[in-house]
């Protein structure tokens, strides 16, 4: 009947018809203060203290109760947005009182007052928000209440939920235009920034991931593996440290199995551990060819980069959820598959064991066994990531980027030429 800006939207005759024919059949009437006062005036209800300025929460309640008693709706909600109140005494705030630096006791609030059968009164209080993003708030509130009622909620519950919805809509509004703009109706909805099932693809194509991922996959150490020019002593040192890394990597995947809640995910994590064991056999065989025994490998101290990386992954596993652990494991799991795929297609790669000592290493990470491990790990991530909020996805991306930087540090333990 009266907009937030004060414009009367219904002619007098229409208000009279509503009052005479509809209100007595109404479940809930939701006037703002100007509308409530107009209803009283149009129906000849001249209670001076209510027709004049409403100055307190008690007067808001009296306004709602009078409309209910005299006009017949089962419930009446008088919206208090036009009458900001001081939280300390619930009386009308003066101009300028909405200063956000006020102490808590002097904060300005809005109180929506609901009155109903058998004297029931519900007061919904929220912080006052000085904003121009209030166009359509009344319609939005009524629609939200209707939606909650349709879900089977009672009137007080539906009203409270709808008031919270509108308050959040004002708070998060995009502030469009130069006048009174709309609130944000979509504050509790979000869309994934990727199509379900394609998070890994989205992740590796993100602008903040691409540079560090490219540095990892195309690192000089990697390229030297491909063309066979990596110093043998560097490879020996790397393969020993990678064996020690895989011990901790197996522990982390075992921790993932422990954190899993169903037998399928437990089995998949254990299968990845099986892939790791077979990968470690490759390392042992390489070292045997260099005259290094398994006992010597195990007796070798971890270098700082190895310890830092593996303990970071384990710390994520201990302190966060299963998905975060899987993301922390992903740079290694996905990265070695990507390295093998890149080197297999690169024109400078020497694809002959006689000419390139490291070609069997490349083949291992391009083999069906490892490709299957990557698929299993990716599936575990894709399954859970679809339920994450955008904010959580950003947190997980940061874990992935940090883990990828740790991988780069692993390459850099030994010289590439």
Plain-language structure description:
With 417 residues, the chain is mainly α. The chain has 2 domains: 12-172, Ribokinase (UDP-N-acetylmuramoyl-L-alanine:D-glutamate ligase, 3-Layer(aba) Sandwich); 199-413, Up-down Bundle (Heme Oxygenase, Chain A), CATH 1.20.910. Helix content is 58%, strand content 6%. Helix 10 (232-259) packs parallel to helix 13. The protein is rod-shaped, with a radius of gyration of 33 Å. It starts with 11 loop residues before the first helix and ends in a 6-residue tail after the last helix. This is Phosphomethylpyrimidine kinase. Keywords: Kinase, Transferase. One of its GO terms (biological process) is thiamine biosynthetic process.
Write the layout of secondary structure elements.
Blueprint (H helix, E strand, L loop, with lengths): L11 H11 L5 E2 L3 H10 L5 H4 L5 H15 L3 E4 L6 E2 L21 E8 L5 E7 L9 H14 L4 H17 L27 H7 L4 H8 L2 H8 L4 H28 L3 H27 L4 H6 L4 H16 L2 H24 L13 H8 L1 H18 L4 H22 L6
Parallel strand pairs: 1-2
Antiparallel strand pairs: 2-4, 3-4, 4-5
């Amino acid at each position: 009947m009266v907009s937030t800006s004060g414009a009367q939207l219904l002619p007098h005759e229409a208000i009279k018809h509503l009052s005479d024919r509809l209100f007595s059949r109404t479940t809930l009437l939701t006037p703002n203060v100007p509308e409530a006062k107009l209803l009283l005036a149009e129906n000849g209800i001249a209670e001076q203290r209510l027709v004049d300025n409403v100055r307190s929460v008690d007067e808001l309640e009296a306004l709602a109760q009078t409309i209910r008693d005299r006009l017949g709706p089962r419930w009446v909600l008088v919206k208090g947005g036009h009458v900001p109140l001081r939280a300390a005494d619930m009386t009308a705030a003066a101009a300028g009182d909405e200063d956000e630096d006020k102490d808590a006791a002097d904060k300005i609030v809005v109180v929506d007052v609901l009155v109903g059968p058998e004297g029931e009164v519900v007061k919904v209080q929220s912080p006052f928000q000085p904003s121009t993003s209030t166009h359509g708030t009344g319609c939005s509130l009524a629609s939200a209440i209707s939606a909650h009622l349709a879900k089977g909620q009672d009137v007080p519950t539906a009203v409270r939920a709808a008031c919270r919805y509108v308050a959040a809509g004002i708070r998060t509004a995009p502030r469009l235009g130069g006048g009174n703009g709309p609130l944000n109706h979509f504050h509790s909805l979000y869309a994934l920034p990727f199509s379900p099932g394609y998070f890994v693809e989205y992740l590796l194509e993100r602008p903040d991931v691409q540079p560090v991922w490219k540095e990892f996959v195309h690192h000089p150490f990697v390229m030297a593996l491909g063309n066979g020019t990596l110093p043998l002593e560097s490879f020996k040192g790397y393969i020993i440290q990678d064996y020690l890394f895989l011990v901790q990597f197996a522990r982390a995947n075992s921790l993932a199995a422990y954190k899993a809640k169903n037998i399928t995910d437990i089995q998949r994590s254990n299968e990845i551990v099986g892939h790791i064991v077979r990968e470690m056999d490759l390392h042992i065989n390489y070292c045997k060819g260099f005259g290094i025994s398994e006992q010597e490998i195990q007796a070798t101290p971890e270098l700082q980069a190895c310890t830092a990386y593996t303990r970071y992954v384990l710390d994520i596993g201990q302190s966060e959820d299963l998905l975060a652990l899987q993301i922390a494991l992903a740079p290694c799991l996905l990265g070695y598959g990507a390295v093998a795929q890149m080197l297999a297609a690169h024109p400078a790669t020497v694809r002959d064991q006689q000419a390139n000592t490291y070609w069997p290493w490349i083949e291992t990470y391009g083999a069906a066994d490892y490709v299957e491990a990557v698929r299993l790990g990716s599936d575990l991530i894709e399954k859970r990531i679809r339920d994450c909020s955008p904010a959580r996805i950003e947190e997980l991306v940061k874990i992935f980027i940090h883990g990828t930087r740790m991988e780069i540090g692993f390459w850099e333990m030994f010289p590439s030429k």
